[in-house]
Amino acid sequence: MSQIFFGAPPRPSAPAGANVSERAQLPPSLAISTVIFALKPDPLANGAPTLWLPLVRRIKEPFRGQWALPGGPLTAEESLEDAARRNLLETTGLAPAYLEQLYAFGGLNRSSRPERGSQRVVSIVYWALVRATEAQLSVGGEGGDENVAWHRADTAGAGEGGLAFDHREIVDYALWRVRTKIEYAQIAYHFLGPTFTLAQLREVYEAVLGRSLDPANFRRQLKSAPQIEATDEFLEGGRHRPPRLYRYTGPLDATPGGPGPGSTQS
Amino acid sequence: MSQIFFGAPPRPSAPAGANVSERAQLPPSLAISTVIFALKPDPLANGAPTLWLPLVRRIKEPFRGQWALPGGPLTAEESLEDAARRNLLETTGLAPAYLEQLYAFGGLNRSSRPERGSQRVVSIVYWALVRATEAQLSVGGEGGDENVAWHRADTAGAGEGGLAFDHREIVDYALWRVRTKIEYAQIAYHFLGPTFTLAQLREVYEAVLGRSLDPANFRRQLKSAPQIEATDEFLEGGRHRPPRLYRYTGPLDATPGGPGPGSTQS
DNA sequence: AAAATAGTGTCTGTAAGACAATATTGT
DNA sequence: ACAATATTGTCTTACAGACACTATTTT
């Protein structure tokens, strides 16, 4: 919550060229990065699911050895979103169902260790949601690349000198975005399979929002939504009364290709 | 907390997909554009205020002679927001109190008249709010540049072959953004001076939202907000009972310079 | 039977919208 | 006095949140 002024807005008072360091005068280059969220059971949270994301260990300076968001340069013949998808697939093997632009980061001091003569990079960052099942298959398993690993979204990099570049700030912003967006848009279903129990759906909301929700009120709200459809099936194998399985039949807010970021519910 | 589930705001339809032509293999270049909104009395709307924005007539191909958003290239030594501010000042003389990143547009077919060998451009678009008083002084007056002029935001370019590039789509998205954001963030005050009557504030909401609001209920809602403070003054000179002037004392959701949870609910 | 989770019913406080009623000014 | 706007009050409805209560399964 940045809150500000009324009469006199604080402005970054730097007219162009005011404080010119000697840096390459090359035009800024463009890169794409992606914050990929999945819900995974967290041993530290008593087995309750929390938000995780895959990170890539840097093998070059700057920030060599530290963890960074997957990403890469934008090539000449692909759209921003295609570039995000391609980088995602190449570095993590994931093909998310939900992908949306997050923000364009272009500050002058994005690398807190600016290298002499290094070119300035503007990063257009996307965020994505994947199911835990997909997440398991692609990264971190036996055959996985040890330079790609899942981390808890809220604590990644802590105790290891932080994440590379300004990626901690980016992840925090993406967390804020998924938490606020889940309250008004249909994105929770991207974490789940085609059918689910109301308890599972509630678990998604609780994990993302970070607070517990009243099961009775949660159920009542969903029942008032015509897009939630009860199936004839029940989830067997539990330790107690088997819960009914539901299906989401509404529009899935899939991958807002461009400006209407997202979610619409017709 | 408000309703969790359904009820997302309507969004503009998604943009068209890409259509690759053979184009130069140069890396995409970066540009900044800005959608600047001001409320101006509209003769076509019976004198009621509507949203207007300054546009620049293109003097070069492509789209020569058509109207476009003010903007320009990003130089090596300025942040994205600084570049938006600078371009704004140079082309329109405006220094907006509110400035926020809108979206990064990077589709392959952004110029619907792709020139052979032209370099692909990724535009990072900002949107801004200015007061009508500022707006009057800088553009379109006697000494104004005739290649810069105010247009109604919702109809600009209609009947003139449309706006240049994909700028109509961009303006529509910016319109959607200001209309949805005014409902939960304190941005209306950026259209007004330090004091205002409740009728003036209501007029702002009505103009942006495009519907009329009940004066009594509007007043009651604002009175429940501690950030609205009554002054001892009244607006004299009206034709009837003089209304009291109020002041907004709360945080002004201004210029989320970076990504941070820059805007908040109230 | 007990435990545990699934699922229903009810009450309360808050807030929005419709709209009647009163207040205060200029003409 | 009258017109026009400002300002207050009242009623209704919707809904979120708290929470008691019932239902159905496993152990």
UniProtKB/TrEMBL annotation, chains A, B:
Segments for region (Disordered): 1-20, 237-266
> Which residues does the UniProt record annotate as the domain Nudix hydrolase?
27-179
**InterPro entries, A to Z:** NUDIX_hydrolase-like_dom_sf, NUDIX_hydrolase_dom, WH-like_DNA-bd_sf, WH_DNA-bd_sf, WHD_NrtR
The protein depicted here goes by the name NUDIX domain-containing protein
The source organism is: Sinomonas flava
